[in-house]
Amino acid sequence: MKAVLATDLSAASEATIENETCLKCLGRIGIEEMHLVTVIPSNVHRGMPGIDFETRRRKAIRKYERVIEDAGFDVETHVVRGTPHRRITGLAETIGASLTVVGSRGKSPLENRVIGSTARNLARTTETPLLVNRIERAADDPAVVRQHLFQRMLYATDFSENAERAFEAFSYLRHATQEATLVHVETPKDPGLSNDEDPEAQLGELADQLEAWSIETRTEVRQGDPADEILAAEESHNPTTILIGSRGHSRLRRLLLGSVSEDIVARANGNVMLVPPSRA
């Protein structure tokens, strides 16, 4: 499996790349080849006096390349120009990546209200499963918040096709997962279920699949706003990563109010893994 690891060469990005435990977790789920990419914003020009961003970034990225090689991965580096989330998405599609990894400090009111961070833009546009690795926010020398990426998973489902696709990620995550909490949030008009379907029973069927892989599993049905309740479940169960489909049932909600997945990326305390719909 191949992964794209995006970096802006900041201290936060360095925390993701240099965390030995995180790298081991990626290896455990089958990642063998890592493509390390940094994007020079399109408004930064080669001719700016006294500044050679491309040379500086190529020099800086070599240090990260050695770290990843020492962890046992094959590595290719890419220094490109353009809009960060578009170039990262394009590279992932070009190489056929199974996962894109990006560090994010998250929880910035400015990011949420204005244009959004690279991580949030990737959440909107990615065609590849996206792992948002949460970094400490208020620290001069930040570290990753959850070192074991997939040890304790919180899987949130609305029983849509995309949620089912997200659950399929356990086929490789199981090699690094010990515990899982399966959560469904009921809303007054729940388009995911017909009147004769029982969410507890459906979660139970999913739990049986995980327990067959020796993953200790619990299920929980909540009522209320999906994003709020998923985040409340995160607070209760302290997972290392939330796993969720990047599109739910309501296209209208996504267009007008922002999707549940985008809210989770912006507000979660720990890591978030988004799985987009199948292109078909």
Automatic annotation (TrEMBL):
Domain UspA, first and last residues per copy: 32-132, 150-276
Superkingdom of source: Archaea
A Pfam family reported for this protein in Swiss-Prot or TrEMBL: Usp
Protein family per UniProt: Belongs to the universal stress protein A family.
Record-given protein name: UspA domain-containing protein
Organism field: Natronorubrum tibetense GA33
